[in-house]
Amino acid sequence: xxxxxxxxxxxxxxxxxxxxxxxxxxxxxxxxxxxxxxxxxxxxxxxxxxxxxxxxxxxxxxxxxxxxxxxxxxxxxxxxxxxxxxxxxxxxxxxxxxxxxxxxxxxxxxxxxxxxx
Length: 117
Known about the structure:
By secondary structure, the chain is mostly helical. It has three helices and two strands; from the N terminus they run αβααβ.
């Protein structure tokens, strides 16, 4: 399993096997859902959908040189999740720069509840 944090590596690794794309989303302001939607979903569920849709719309074929949000000394929540999961023991992941997307609109407000048939 290849899990590079740098989107430029997502392209360069190519067809060398499965990849786990690691990124973060900062959903707030105009990107944050404010109320329960027509399907009865709470704002935090809509925000999760907004994050996923923002990544789906991001064009990995032409990676941005920078994230929407940067820091000289980042704390990576996705790095913490990788450590917690046991996928790595590299403590340096806590301060690894990752792609951070900040959606400018609430993309997940139209998301529906999944009802298995």
